[in-house]
Design goal:
three-stranded antiparallel β-sheet; five-stranded mixed β-sheet; 39% strand; 18% helix; alpha+beta; globular
Length: 125
């Protein structure tokens, strides 16, 4: 039986447990468009903060939808990532930590996921 795409997945990194999900949504801008959001929550609940990496569709940038794989985000001339791959999520988590995210702080940090794309693609994800 395949795994439910709506159920959070577990990841352990550097002794801390996270639950992560990938969601598809829509945002209202001049051009409209789709959005993919990768959310990592410290587990158990209440032991730390939340990290949201948001990928909004824009000219030259796409998020998966009807015609592409369910977790794919990409940019023309840069490449693409599959947000359902644990290795990709781990790389994005490690990058967020290196850039200053403090998971022990009980607050949400929302970041533009596109700022991570080129580095992740260059690293082989």
């Amino acid at each position: 039986m395949p795994r439910s795409s709506k159920k959070a997945r577990r990841m352990v990194a550097d002794g801390r447990t996270y639950m992560w999900t990938v969601r598809h949504g829509h945002h209202v801008l001049e051009s409209g468009g789709c959005r993919k959001t990768l959310t990592l929550n410290c587990h158990p609940s209440g032991t730390g903060g939340r990290l949201r990496l948001v990928f909004d569709e824009a000219p030259g940038r796409y998020v998966s939808g009807f015609t592409t794989g369910s977790g794919e985000v990409g940019a023309v001339g840069v490449g693409a990532l599959n947000l359902h791959e644990p290795g990709t999520v781990r790389f994005l988590l490690d990058t967020a930590l290196a850039r200053g995210w403090e998971p022990g702080e009980r607050r949400e940090m929302k970041v533009d996921g596109w700022t991570f794309l080129a580095e992740a693609v260059a690293s082989g994800f």
